[in-house]
Amino acid sequence: MARRKKLYEGKAKILYEGPEPGTLVQYFKDDATAFNAEKRDVIDGKGVLNNRLSEFFMSGLAAIGVPTHFIKRINMREQLIRSVEIIPLEVVVRNIAAGSMSKRLGIEEGTPLPRPIIEFYYKDDALGDPIVSEEHAIAFGWATQQDLDDMVALALRVNDFMSGVMLAVGIKLVDFKIEIGRIFEGDYQRLIVADEISPDSCRLWDINTGQKLDKDVFRQDLGDLADAYTEVARRLGVMPRTNGNITKPTLIN
User: Fold this and answer.
1) Are 42 and 69 found together in one domain?
2) What is the CA radius of gyration of the chain?
3) What pLDDT is recorded for position 35?
4) What is the H or E stretch that residue 217 is in?
């Protein structure tokens, strides 16, 4: 499928005009960033892995009735998605204390939380994506109370699905981030899961060893990021095998 006009380029993905009205082509880059893009690198094969893993998770969510923007994978780096109006809030679901929560609240990293905790962050790189309350979202017109209620419900369903899938392959789902978009069907709007779900947007720890299998490997210089993502793909059976072995993807377009 020929690429069309570039519409947007972010830190990890590029969006192109889709082949039909209401569609986009989402291209996964090999770029890795951390600390609001202060740390950068290019990791060969990362885009391939995230494309395949996001396809796996989005397809699994659709199978249990959770609406997503995903339509189909086009090739190793691109997927066809529905065009949505992104709500300018990142929705973070936390099952175990880690990262900024541990720093903000003085909770030791690795402490299980009494229940999943949902946080909202305002999507603005210049401000460092600050944490905000529901009151902020409503007051500034980013979302209505009904939107927020629906976003929480979607996030908890994603958490149930992701936690079960990861537990089955020996991985703890520590936390994750999703983005949610609006689509309009006649006079009605519906909220659906958008952007991506991949190790870029999750914290994933091996249940037995505590080994990190997510972007913290890059943030904290813990090893090869592509190796960590490949291990997640291997356990989930996402990447094709050759002679019984899975090979880390490199330079595949």
Assistant:
1) yes
2) 18
3) 82
4) helix 216-219
Whether the pTM exceeds 0.70: the reply is yes
CATH number at residue 11: 3.30.200.20
Task: Decide: 226 and 248 in contact? Cβ < 8 Å.
Answer: yes
Compute the distance between CA of residue 65 and CA of residue 179 in angstroms, rounded to an integer.
17
Is the separation of the CB atoms in 165 and 60 below 8 Å?
yes
Same domain, yes or no: 47 and 65 = yes
- 97 part of a folded domain: yes
C-alpha 22/C-alpha 226 separation (Å) is 33
According to the model, what pLDDT value does residue 34 have? 86
Q: What is the number of structural domains in the chain?
A: 2
Q: Are 92 and 119 in contact (CB under 8 A)?
A: yes
Taking Cα atoms as reference points, which of 95, 90, 45, 46 lies closest to residue 193? 90
Domain residues for the domain of 163 are 87-206
The token pair at 25 is: 């082509």
Structure tokens at 82: 């529905």
Cα angle 172, 175, 179; round to 5: 135
Q: Which residues of the chain fall short of a pLDDT of 50?
A: 1, 242-246, 250-253
Are 92 and 146 part of one and the same domain? yes
Is 120 domain-assigned? yes
Strands 171-185 and 202-206 come out as antiparallel
Q: State how far the Cα of 67 lies from the Cα of 61, in Å rounded to an integer.
A: 7
